[in-house]
């Protein structure tokens, strides 16, 4: 077995430069078993490209041998960091034929404002391959590529132009103008062309590396929860040619306005794409883009608790420009979590599988082919030019948040992942405005629902074929709706009617007709928020439909995005009742806040119930996590249970057996807990 699969990886990267023996002390103290090495004397390896951002000692190639020996003595594998996306401008100017060229014909010169970048299709690749051989011969345990990427307005170098014309038979089109015309088949071609180019570069790189030494790890910085088209990084192509799928789910910017779930969502998402290979979430211990800062311990805790719970390894970077040991609180968290993972590898690596009965789709393909509804907004209220309905990321995170807060364990997958699931694995699949579904996926979903599976979907789900908006929903038979009507909105103060009550409407709706059961209607839009009492319209908002043995709940509006923005309590209640009626309950908890996330995995011997505590002081970055006490847990299982043990607090818990379930109390959850439930031999 390859070394990177044997135990969970506890990866550390340190920006500050230490003498070799001091560095080893720090790595040992942090309980690392793998390091990304960036502090080498780059000028000797990479002519004119110096990594002199931070102070402290630089490592020289002459020291590599000693360094690697000492690292190996303390059980740390050393992975060489190789920047393949930002090139020193002076060096780049010497090789104009290698530079990425922008749409205006000029070489790119504004990567991080001050760098250029080379193209994977140019002669530069041979320089890289020679460098890989050198790095392997130094004896490094692995090589990590930071990049390679294209940019939103590149690359139009001679190699790209020639290769594109050769394959597609026409001139390489302009990427930014096509991004506004995604129906055009050329859009699909250019996305494919660039992601293929990166895949080819990785394949050749990996062949070079493995031909020198098959036990050298090779991986790169992949795509996170974002469209693939700006950079050309398609994770499913990348992982076929590399050993680990890693992405920057723990890079938090400015006021940390992105969802708190970003590291966990990334871990779940990467696992769905990795074909069983390991996943890593890159967590920068800094408040980006301030590169010489450190996040408080609460945020670092949530990097660890979310990432490890959802099946990925943590890469933690310390970016301060001095000895990291001065930051005792943060160092303490890193030490404790790495020690916990080291002492308890089983819940993280031991062939466990998720017990979740709910699957949330991350609409990856839709992100590349949908730019919000391309249909002009109608006069149901008023048109706001330039605004697009149906933000996919918001729609996804709205559903994500609702599942976490009502304590439902769930998995995440891209659209393609639907093809590989067993029909009885999940009870419920959720499609948050998953606009672009392939025909094969639609067939699979039809089979799933026919056999008794349920789906929840919203807004324009299955309304497109790649970038083209259709006249009928692809999932029409299941939804009980055929024709795709007009989009209306934004509804700023309007309502829906449900059970005779008036509650908030989502921001955008879509006009549909149905023979299914209508559970809720939009109200007629009001000219102003105080103009009069809302009246019910004939436009359905929630439609229930039976198909085969299963059921569909369809929201004709952007409910996920409205949860994301406004957190209407009524929406959580509504969704919670659908989740619970459409999927089997595996766990029920009492006396816990909504800021406690739960996940469950199992192997032959144990169930593992993971508790991630997000409870904090109502601001980010989070400094302190507040403990939760006396949580009552009902765990529904038909297995015979031996004992119940808390791995973090290291204590045996008493439990009661009842029909089809066990009941136990957890006295306290500080930042994290895993309850190990032993299955008794039959
Ligand atoms: Zn190029």
What does this structure look like?
- This protein has 682 residues and is of the alpha/beta class.
- 29% of the residues lie in helices and 25% in strands.
- 48% of the residues are buried.
- The protein has 20 helices and 31 strands.
- It has a nine-stranded mixed β-sheet with strand order 11-10-12-13-22-21-20-17-18, with helices on both faces. An eight-stranded parallel beta barrel has the order 1-2-3-4-5-6-7-8, surrounded by five helices.
- Helix 6 (124-138) packs parallel to helix 9 (185-212), helix 12 (297-309) runs parallel beside helix 13 and helix 16 (392-405) crosses helix 19.
- The two termini are 31 Å apart.
- Mean pLDDT is 94; it is low at 374-386.
- The chain is globular, with a radius of gyration of 26 Å.
- The protein folds into four domains: 1-81 and 243-349, no CATH class; 84-224, no CATH class; 358-582, Class I glutamine amidotransferase (GATase) domain (Rossmann fold); 587-679, Immunoglobulin-like (Sandwich), CATH 2.60.40.1180.
- Zinc ion binds at residues 100, 119, 121-122, 155, 157, 159-160.
- Zinc ion (ZN) binds next to helix 7.
């Amino acid at each position: 077995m390859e070394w990177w699969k044997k135990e969970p990886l506890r990866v550390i990267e340190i920006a500050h430069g230490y003498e070799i023996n001091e560095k080893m002390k720090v790595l040992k103290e942090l309980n690392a078993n793998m390091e990304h090495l960036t502090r080498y004397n780059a000028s000797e390896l990479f002519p004119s490209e110096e990594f002199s951002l931070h102070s402290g000692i630089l490592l020289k190639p002459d020291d590599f041998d000693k360094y690697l020996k000492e690292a190996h003595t303390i059980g740390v594998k050393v992975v060489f960091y190789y920047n393949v996306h930002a090139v020193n401008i002076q060096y780049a100017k010497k090789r104009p034929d290698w530079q990425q060229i922008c749409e205006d014909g000029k070489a790119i010169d504004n990567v991080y404002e001050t760098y250029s970048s080379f193209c994977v299709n140019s002669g530069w690749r041979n320089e890289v391959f020679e460098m890989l051989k050198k790095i392997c011969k130094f004896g490094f345990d692995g090589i990590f590529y930071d990049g390679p990427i294209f940019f939103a307005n590149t690359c139009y170098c001679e190699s790209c132009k020639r290769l594109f014309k050769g394959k597609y038979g026409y001139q390489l089109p302009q990427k930014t103008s096509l991004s506004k015309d995604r129906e055009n088949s050329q859009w699909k071609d250019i996305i494919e062309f660039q992601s293929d180019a990166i895949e080819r570069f990785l394949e050749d790189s990996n062949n070079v590396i493995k031909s020198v030494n098959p036990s050298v790890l090779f991986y790169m910085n992949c795509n996170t929860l974002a469209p693939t088209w700006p950079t050309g990084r398609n994770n499913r192509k990348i992982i076929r040619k590399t050993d680990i799928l890693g992405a920057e789910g723990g890079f938090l910017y400015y006021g940390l306005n992105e969802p708190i779930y970003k590291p966990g969502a990334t871990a779940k998402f990467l696992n769905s794409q990795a074909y069983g290979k390991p996943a890593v979430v890159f967590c920068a211990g800094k408040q980006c883009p301030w590169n010489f800062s450190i996040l408080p311990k609460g945020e670092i805790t949530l990097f660890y608790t979310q990432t490890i719970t959802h099946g990925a390894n943590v890469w933690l970077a310390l970016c301060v420009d001095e000895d990291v040991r001065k930051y005792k609180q943060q160092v303490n968290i890193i030490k404790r979590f790495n020690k916990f993972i080291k002492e308890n590898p089983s819940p993280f690596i031991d062939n466990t599988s998720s017990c979740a009965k709910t699957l949330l789709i991350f609409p990856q393909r839709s992100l590349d082919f949908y730019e919000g509804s391309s249909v002009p907004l109608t006069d149901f209220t008023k048109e706001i030019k330039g605004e697009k309905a149906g933000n996919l990321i918001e729609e996804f995170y709205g559903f994500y948040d609702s599942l976490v807060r009502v304590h439902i364990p769930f998995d995440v997958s891209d659209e393609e992942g639907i093809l590989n699931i067993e029909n009885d694995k999940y009870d419920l699949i959720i499609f948050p405005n998953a606009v672009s579904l392939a025909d094969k996926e639609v067939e699979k979903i039809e089979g799933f629902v026919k056999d008794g599976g349920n789906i929840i979907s919203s807004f324009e789900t299955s309304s497109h074929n790649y970038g083209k908006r259709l006249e009928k929903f692809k999932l029409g038979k299941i939804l009980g709706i055929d024709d795709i009507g007009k989009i209306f909105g934004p509804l700023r103060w309007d309502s829906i009617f449900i059970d005779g009550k008036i509650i908030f409407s989502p921001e955008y709706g879509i006009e549909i007709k149905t023979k299914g059961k209508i559970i809720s209607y939009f109200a007629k839009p009001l000219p102003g928020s105080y103009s009069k009492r809302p009246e019910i319209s004939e436009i359905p908002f929630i439609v229930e439909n039976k198909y085969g043995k299963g059921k569909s709940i369809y929201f004709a509006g952007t409910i996920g995005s409205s949860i994301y923005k406004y957190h209407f309590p009524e929406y959580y209640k509504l969704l919670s009742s659908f989740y619970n009626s459409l999927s089997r309950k595996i766990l029920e908890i009492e006396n816990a806040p909504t800021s406690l996330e739960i996940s469950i995995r199992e192997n032959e011997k144990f169930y593992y119930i993971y508790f991630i505590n997000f409870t904090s002081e109502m601001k980010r970055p989070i400094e302190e996590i507040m403990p939760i006490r006396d949580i009552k847990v009902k765990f529904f299982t038909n297995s015979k249970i031996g004992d119940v043990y808390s791995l973090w607090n290291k204590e045996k818990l008493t439990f009661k057996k009842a029909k089809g379930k066990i009941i136990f109390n957890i006295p306290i959850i500080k930042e994290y807990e895993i309850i190990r439930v032993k299955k008794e031999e039959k």
